[in-house]
């Protein structure tokens, strides 16, 4: 599987947190005592209306008099739901820890394998979000952290939520979605000049709250985090990094010391001509150095750590040229068109570009529209799907 440098912007976790309670793990029975009997009965009745055979119903309070969590079984299959205080079911999911019982879209499998290679699968939840749209929640363990990822029906990533390292099962903070008017007045005042997108309130174990707000200024999307007192503690500008190559010329003094040492030891009497560093999403991929002696040229290529990987003797010290070029839908390879027709039925290309290396396509970045939804969709040089993300 090709390694990609697509960054799943964490802001989109608003969609995840608004549709799920604190985690995929079942709520322990003792939480029932935290919910008053009348509210528990009302929530149970709501669940019974949609799931007449629901059994083993356990109701817990996510936020007092606002949002409740409910775990239950239907014919032995675990389910989870969130219900508002006015009796509206906000989300429902069937949950399993057996990956063979769920057929995930290939796009989800691709995303997990490329971005979380070696991950440990824990649970999958399949159901509907607060808008009634089909969605998938996948809980994995990756590098000692629990990561929950939410995908839509097409297999496009909508959100990610990463727990702190060492977080134990059952300790994940409770969360619920909120409107602008649900936020404290001092937070609302700080959002002046922003276009409010969404918010999530996290209730902490000490009864304090943390507020996560998604808001826009123009076309720039921000994640804003406020503490229990409404103090802004973090601002994150959400950017989508394109999976493309780029280059930058270097002087001899700009070269890493390990490369200088290699040239000094092996080409002591050669003259430095020019150098270039090649990056992929700001991560160094290669260093290329051209040197000369008695009218002859040698090009040395090093990996990102400065290890020599190739030596060439060109007629002149020409380096690869990287650039981006806009494309139209008519210029897309048939394999990409077929994929879009299958997965994003009714799509139209809003904007598209290709990354070129010496005029040879390295990757495709497409911004497509399906109804009111917009997606970034990435393909490699052969037109093979790499990743996708829904734009808010």
Automatic annotation (TrEMBL):
Alphabetized Gene3D superfamilies for the sequence: 3.10.450.360, 3.40.1420.30
Protein name as annotated: PepSY-like domain-containing protein
Stretches assigned to coiled coil: none
Domain Putative beta-lactamase-inhibitor-like PepSY-like: 100-158, 248-309
Source organism per UniProt: Arcicella rigui
Entry superkingdom: Bacteria
Pfam family, any one: PepSY_like
């Amino acid at each position: 599987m090709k390694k990609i440098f697509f960054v799943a912007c964490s802001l989109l976790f608003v969609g995840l947190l608004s549709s799920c309670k604190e985690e995929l793990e079942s709520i322990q029975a003792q939480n029932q005592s935290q919910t008053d009997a009348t509210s528990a009965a009302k929530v149970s009745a709501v669940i019974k209306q949609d799931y007449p055979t629901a059994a083993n119903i356990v109701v817990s309070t996510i936020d007092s008099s606002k949002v409740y969590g409910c775990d239950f079984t239907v014919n032995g299959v675990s389910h989870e739901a969130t219900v508002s205080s006015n009796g509206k079911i906000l989300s429902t999911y069937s949950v399993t820890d057996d990956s063979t019982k769920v057929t995930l879209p290939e796009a989800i499998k691709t995303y997990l394998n490329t971005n979380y290679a070696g991950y440990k699968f824990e649970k999958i939840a399949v159901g509907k979000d607060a808008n009634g749209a089909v969605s998938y929640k996948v809980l994995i363990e990756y590098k000692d952290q629990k990561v929950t990822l939410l995908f839509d029906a097409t297999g496009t990533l909508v959100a990610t939520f990463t727990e702190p390292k060492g977080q134990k099962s059952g300790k994940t903070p409770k969360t619920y979605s909120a409107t602008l008017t649900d936020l404290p007045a001092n937070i609302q005042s700080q959002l002046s000049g922003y276009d409010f997108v969404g918010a999530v309130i996290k209730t902490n174990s000490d009864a304090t709250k943390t507020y996560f707000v998604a808001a826009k200024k123009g076309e720039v999307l921000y994640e804003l985090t406020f503490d229990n007192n409404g103090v802004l503690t973090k601002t994150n500008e959400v950017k989508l990094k394109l999976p493309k190559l780029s280059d930058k010329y270097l002087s001899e003094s700009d070269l890493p010391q390990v490369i200088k040492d290699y040239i000094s030891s092996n080409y002591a009497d050669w003259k430095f001509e020019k150098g270039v560093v090649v990056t992929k999403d700001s991560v160094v991929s290669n260093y290329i150095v051209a040197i000369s002696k008695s009218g002859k040229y040698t090009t040395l290529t090093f990996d990102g750590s400065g290890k020599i990987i190739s030596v060439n003797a060109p007629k002149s010290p020409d380096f690869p040229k990287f650039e981006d070029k806009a494309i139209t839908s008519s210029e897309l390879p048939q394999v990409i068109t077929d994929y879009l027709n299958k997965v994003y039925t009714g799509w139209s290309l809003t904007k598209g570009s290709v990354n070129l290396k010496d005029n040879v396509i390295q990757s495709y970045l497409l911004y497509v529209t399906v109804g009111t939804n917009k997606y970034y969709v990435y393909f490699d040089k052969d037109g093979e799907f790499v990743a996708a993300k829904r734009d808010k």
